[in-house]
Amino acid sequence: MNENPSMNQASREASVVTPEHVMLRFQTAGLGSRAAAQLIDTVILFLVNLTVFIVIGIVIFGRKDNFFLDADNYAFAIGLFLIFVLNFGYFLFLEALWSGQTVGKRWMGIRVIRDNGQPATFLSSTIRNLFRIIDGLPSGYFLGALVSFFHPRDKRIGDLVAGTIVVVEGGGRTGLFQKNKRKKAESLASFQEPLLLTESQKQSFTREDWVLLSTFMTRQATLSEDKKLELGRQLASMLQKKLDYKEEHAVSGEPLLFLQQLYRTLEREWTLGK
């Protein structure tokens, strides 16, 4: 994907144009949704840390012998190391392995992606989370929040360095509003029979293709009929060639129907666990 520099700063939307000349608009996640996601993750980490501290206390202070014995020192050191790994690794590994989301981000319906619209990588997630230390200065993520507030794409310092952006899934509202919107799009597709695709066709369908398809499905209600049909034809043609779908006349004649059927066919596979 190639990034389009144009962006509506008033509505906080970033535009990305794919090589197939399909434009996607992502609504960036503002301070409110990001702060709420951070609060949820912080509560989870607090409970985990509290549990670790309790276990360490039981191991160390539950012993009748001296605290300064080597076994107790090792237990204390291991506990501190475990706490560090949990607090740093929570954001790093969840974002890298859970398609740019933590528990808080998933609950709020937001996601970390790269500037070109592709999913966040392990490297980009590592970089943005290393800079949490700087974003957290002097306390309470003040510096990160300040930079995000004035940046046209709601980026904190870690996002600027890592080349990432936090967006609202499907371009809609966050949280329950976004989930309701996604369910509405899925309900439209549920009336359509799924396509019969071979395993090789399914394997040729990538995550980037799913992002294109699911974004179109969730945003089509906000498009005019002409714009929806125009984008639908472009996307249907591109996916038809990608899948080597033989019934080309059906795709060109009813592109929106084809996209709904394709969404219906692949939704369970691509939304499993999300």
Percent range for β-strand residues: 5-15%
Q: State the low-pLDDT regions, or none.
A: 1-11, 171-178, 183-191
Q: Could you tell me how far the N terminus lies from the C terminus, measured between alpha carbons in angstroms?
A: 24 Å
The helix-strand sequence is EEEHHHEHHHHEHHHHHH
Quaternary structure classification:
single chain
| Helix-residue proportion | 55-70%
Kindly state the number of beta strands: 5
**Estimated structural class:** mainly alpha
Number of helices: 13
Shape: elongated
Number of domains: 2
Give me the Rg, rounded: 23 Å
**What average pLDDT do the residues reach?**
76
Instruction: Report the major sheet.
Output: 3 strands, antiparallel
- Strands across the major sheet, in which order? 1-2-3
Main location: membrane
InterPro entries: RDD
Membrane topology: Multi-pass membrane protein
Pfam families: RDD
